[in-house]
Batch of 2 targets.
Target 1
Amino acid sequence: MNKPHLSTIIVCIALCFPVLSPAASIHKIGFDLYAYISDNDASANSTFLVSDQGILVVDTGLNAQEGRKLLEQIRKLSPAPVRWIVNTHYHPDHRGGNNVVGPDAIVISTAFTRSQTAKPAKESSVNETVGPNGLVLYLGGHEIRIYHPGPAHTQGDLVVYFPDERAIATGDLFLTNSCPAMDDGDMENWIAALDHMLALPIEHVVPGHFELATKSELQRFRNYLADLRDQVARMYRQGLPLERIQGSLALDAYNNFRQYPNYEATFKDNAAAYYQQLTKRKMQEH
């Protein structure tokens, strides 16, 4: 059976999955810096920085409705225009509100994300792509470091780090207490990307979805991926088939992680994704 494309899965979640969070919430996580935690689990969280030069927003939600909800919260704090939008990757739940939140904004993404995005007719033609050396912005006295960690969740993820505020917006490289849905990325480099984040002096972690987190939850998510990687790799080297590997996983330490069987976001699905990466690598070596 062909796997449904992840962007289609996300839209299905939005239409079919019940909203689990009670209400959207705004958290002040630094001077002029805020985290918007969506009340719709199918729509991404956002981070925004208010400055006298304008507002920078990281991710804008699933669609126009979610974008309006975000913009309403921004307007409670500032009337300044949204001049910059960072899309952490190409999935529609992270960029669907762009046209509402910042119709004239500069959209910052990787070249891969831009290549995967069908440009809406009303979207601004002004875009900035982040290369391998990253991008540093200075807004209202705040430093913002935007970088691409290499293939991880997707082939074109971005991470946004606010060093003065000791805060980081991870996109879907991190989900609080949850299994990720894996795209065509790289598990091992994903773990390396998380290790890089954990080495930074951070206090506030804005995940792609679910509750605002700290370095403790980020570490646990990293440990989950590393445990999964180690177990799958060991059994793969032993020549076990995928079904046997999935049935032999020992991940009780993460039993409270959210899992979405209908959307390929479970322990077994994550094991299958890494198994496929190992198989692809083996074929390339031969």
Target 2
Amino acid sequence: MGGLTEWLLDSDPALRWQVQRDLLCAPEEVWRATRGLVAVEGFGARLLGLQGVDGMWGGGAFFPLGYDGKEDGQPWTATTWSLNSLREWGLDASVLQARRTVELLAEGCRWEYEGLPYWGGEVDCCINGWTLANGVWLGAPVEGIAEWFVSHQLEDGGWNCEWGAGAARSSFHSTLNSLKGLLAHELATGGTPETRAARRKGEEYLLERRLFRRLSTGEPVGEWATRFRSPFRWEYSVLNAADYFWQAGVRDPRMAEAVELIRRARQADGTWLQGGRHPGRVWFEIDVEPGEPSKWLTLVGARVLRWWG
């Protein structure tokens, strides 16, 4: 990879350790040492410094304290989004465990929806997926959320955050975020026969649709499926989905067309361009402006293509 490798390695520890592990196949002691820096350098240390004495970020569960819904875009500063970032960046759970984060959130953090207890989850599939993943990472009591996904899986095999409003057809976005939570649970605990079956059924929902096509017509589900934005946040894309299947170790021929779309988006210099930022308040930016080469997207795109072979 030459110069591309050097460019990727000249980055925050949160990204650099993944380059070492997933693209360079560095010895485990090398990438683990880099991952250990997440707690004390760069993005990870900066975000850790913003945690309140109550264990929360921004004083809220999904939205920061005082959010009135009138801002341009959703704020990405509250507790759930901050935990998502730290987990995805590879922070060792022991750092937050030493701060009694699980206990503090159990004591004082409530969802904006009906004041439900934080580690009990909510009614939104995506929120529950993230809370399940964050919970098993930190050792919180979230087994009930895993079981919730089994009972709230729709007939077509996926999930939809609008199920409470009567939605009977699954959403690509909701299904992928649900699958990520179930995979994290399964990797951490082994899962149960029911949660493992639900995850396989959810994967089939996406695979039947080739990761981006409507089952009814075969047409692309939307332009967002091939728009790559970093960080991914809640949004579905074939790159986001393929990265999930890479982590799950599921290599299915029905993904081939989607992988080819990822390959075509690669620039001549081997990079992938930032497709845009999700509007909304952030603690600090971690990626480039739209249209510029993104190290985060290049990491994900390169490891998906390397895995696909």
